[in-house]
TrEMBL record, chains A, B:
Pfam family, one: Peptidase_M20
InterPro entries hit by this protein: Cyt/Met_Dipeptidase (IPR051458), Peptidase_M20 (IPR002933), Peptidase_M20_dimer (IPR011650)
Record protein name field: M20/M25/M40 family metallo-hydrolase
Peptidase M20 dimerisation domain boundaries: 227-380
Entry keywords, A to Z: Hydrolase, Metal-binding, Protease, Signal
Gene3D superfamilies reported in the protein's UniProt record: 3.30.70.360, Zn peptidases (3.40.630.10)
UniProt signal peptide: 1-18
Length: 499, 499
């Protein structure tokens, strides 16, 4: 029967399909082997000599695939740039990925060396290490490769390189000109990037930016992300007696800075978690079609609530995705004197709240911080930039120190951008599943200023599994995602817009 | 001229006065020398062998003065008891003092050994150490003796002993029967005392209790204290997501425990610092004559405000002494996640407030804690005794853990108690200055349960200077206070009530 099938395939048009499948499987295996090789180069951006070794590897690997490459100096670690020879009349895609990784603490990993990738298969509820020869017969989708940067973000780089191979081997033509910019210190906040955009503007010129970083939606479905929230921070410190005082002698007399801070913070939000500072949500308008896209995301509230162990969420939005369309005002830390066994019977001298504000494109970080300052003043406070002097304290009752963190902007490409729609259609056609569209991610990527400075539509195309332990010990890449990455990139690179 | 004066005095009734003065001065000097000897015995209640040496010293010194003495076993350090042979028809005074001291860290003292007392005089803004022979000609009131327990509380014990000597030498008769109970672990909270009252009730029987511990009013005037506030504590912990969450992914969705805690705390007090929990101040009524006594205390608000560096105090009372007549609700500590350089972009899992509640006799500690609990429930919380389980969290939205500290009661003897009035008159007549009457001290003394259990009117009669560095390095006793102590005790012991 198998023989019959083989002959049937041999003499039908499907032969090409079978050959293509073999080529594809070999390329998946090659991707894994090449990723193991790349992961073996430690890539903590604090160690310049390691970054240089990674740059040499990238230069070799991109050159092999016919790219012109260069290493672009910056104020920090260099950027790696590569481009295929440009052809007239085709739109240009700029890919952004990063080759540095989070620092590692080997003692916390379940393998001797986080840079020596290991293959693991799930067996009876645990992960069993296997030799790579176990992949010779087949490549089970649920096995995983464990090692630093397997997912974040060397995996996508190697998938990209192997997609180029695949196109060559199957004689497919690129529908776009291709440029690639690889960041060498994303995990250290990509500080040199915004300046680099100015310096290398012509080199980076493109029609669309595709960012491959971060995981697909928790459902595992193909995912396109149109933006992510920005962030800024504020530190508020209120004052009581200049030194902590005996709570017997001065309780009921010296103003308590912790009560003042509590009252101030409580004045900023309502019971639903909504910010009540006037103007905080100004400019945000969700259309019915926006809401449709948000509602289409297959989030499972019951699963989220079980994971967080909460009975009900805040009500800034009617549901999870809607909540992320608004800026947040989050207390990330609170402190005054001591809690626990160290607690002392005192009226504390100060109380401090650390706030972070996640931003959306409609809510500029500086504007929001000014609204918070205005609100604080409206509660009767004088704002000081540093600790108030005795003279200031004698002249005015309620002092607060406000320190402001820097602003990392949000970015968001409109949902109706034609290239975004094209991406979604292409993925949908390739995988024959719904494609998850994320209007904006809750978190912040440090390259947002870079994205905004390029002034071209940008999209995040995640390629790795959601449970990849990114930034943690035991980072991993599910092997099924390698096949997903090659297929997704192949489809995107070969499907012309409107094609 | 001096000779003439001498002869004049010699042949007038004033001769007795001059002789008395000489005897008095010699007794002051003897007090200082005996205190140096007593201070030389380390007295940290954690070291039982040291406490035993102090007990032997006390036994010898009280016996010398004709007291019957005994060492009373307790569950902790023994108590020392002494009594002069009782005489029929005289009221009995029970004196309470303590002979243990705060632990010392010699490295923080300006003298080699905190137990080797040194004499110091103010010279050009600093304290100069002098040999004790410098006291041979005169005993300047503003020189000081530095050493652990010089003020807290061995000084008063030695002043008491030397007053007995003084009365003998000047042929004065005691107007009272005298009992003395000396605590061996007051600085460790006098835990054995309440049980000891039950066990030694007959031995301790008396008409009035006089406590000599703590400093006179900051004005330096003779002071009688009628009571002190009690204390209890509560620890409140609110809950957000079960583990800290990324503030980008879950800010605006996972409830923030710090905002919840802030809102809850803010609901407990108004802008003036007054507790708004119904019933919190119930039962407190200040008569016009109470207010008169409070207003007569020569506090200097400007000096207090300058010391605290506050422009205006809370308004629980119209002025400092009035504020102390009410229970407090003080945040002594606040904590959630991290502040400062450690702050992380998270929604914290928990937030904790440490509260202390200073009590007055009208506001029972358990009743106040129950009012706070009721208030918390009225804000929509379920109260748990420990960390809520996943099942509890799934069943109900707002959980809080409330842990309660033990209650130390307040005590307060009525201002119009005849013996209190007698004490004030006696001090006023002796020193010809106003006497400061403190209706209730803000702080808490651990012997309050002992005082309340004895069921006799109790008064605190402080003998030492307000700036004695009690509980701190460089504890000291101003020598003028020794003369004050001998004079005050002499007058009190020899002036019969109504006499």
């Amino acid at each position: 029967m198998r023989n019959f099938l083989f002959f049937f395939l041999l003499f039908s048009g499907t032969l090409v399909k079978a050959q293509e499948d073999a080529i594809f499987t070999a390329q998946v295996r090659h991707t894994i082997d090449e990723l193991v090789e790349f992961v073996a180069l430690p890539n903590d951006a604090l160690v310049s000599s390691d970054i240089e070794r990674n740059l040499r590897w990238l230069t070799a690997k991109f050159s092999e695939r016919g790219f012109n490459t260069s290493v672009l100096p910056t104020e920090g670690q260099p950027l790696f740039f590569a481009a295929l020879p440009l052809k007239e009349g085709k739109p240009t895609l700029l890919f952004y990925m990063h080759f540095d990784g989070q620092s590692v603490d080997p003692s916390k990993w379940d393998q001797p060396d986080p840079y020596k990738a290991v293959l693991k298969a799930p067996r009876d509820g645990r992960w069993e290490t296997l030799p790579f020869s176990a992949l010779n017969d087949s490549i089970p989708a649920h096995w995983r490769l464990y090692g630093r940067s397997t997912s974040d973000d060397k995996g996508p780089i190697v998938m990209f390189l192997n997609t180029i191979d695949l196109l060559r081997k199957t004689g497919k033509e690129l529908s776009y000109n291709i440029k690639v910019i690889l960041d060498g210190e994303e995990e250290k906040s990509s500080k040199p990037l915004p300046k680099a955009v100015q310096q290398y503007r012509e080199l980076l010129e493109a029609d669309y930016l595709l960012i491959s970083d971060g995981p697909v939606h928790v459902s595992g479905l193909p995912t396109v992300v149109y933006g992510c929230r920005g962030i800024t921070s504020m530190t508020l410190t209120t004052y009581g007696p200049v030194r902590p005082q005996h709570s017997g002698h001065y309780g009921n007399y010296a103003p308590n800075p912790a009560f003042r801070l509590a009252t101030l913070l409580a004045s900023m939000k309502d019971e639903d978690g909504k910010v009540v500072i006037p103007g905080y949500y100004d400019g945000i308008a969700l259309s019915e079609s926006d809401r449709e896209v948000l509602r289409a995301v297959p989030d499972d509230p019951a699963a989220i609530h079980a994971m967080l162990q909460i009975r009900q969420p805040e009500r800034v939005g009617a549901f999870y995705q809607e909540a992320l369309q608004y800026p947040s005002l989050n207390i990330r830390g609170l402190g005054s004197a001591w809690i626990g066994p160290e607690a002392r019977t005192i009226v504390p001298a100060t109380a401090t709240a650390e706030l972070d504000l996640r931003l959306v494109p409609e809510t500029d970080g500086t504007r929001l911080k000014n609204l918070v300052r205005k609100h604080i003043e409206a509660q009767g406070y004088r704002i000081a930039d540093s600790i108030p002097t005795p003279e200031m304290r004698a002249a005015y009752d309620k002092w607060i120190t406000v320190e402001e963190g820097s602003v990392t902007d949000a970015f968001r490409t409109p949902l109706d951008n034609p290239f975004g729609q094209h991406l979604v259609r292409t993925l949908n056609g390739t995988f024959e599943t719904p494609v998850v569209q994320i209007r904006i991610m809750g978190g912040t990527v440090p390259i947002a200023p870079f994205i905004n400075a390029l002034k071209i539509p940008a999209f995040i195309l995640p390629l790795v599994n959601p449970d990849n332990n990114q930034h943690s010990p035991n980072e991993n890449l599910e092997l099924g995602q390698v096949a997903y990455g090659l297929n997704a990139l192949k489809a995107i690179l070969t499907t012309p817009m409107g094609g």
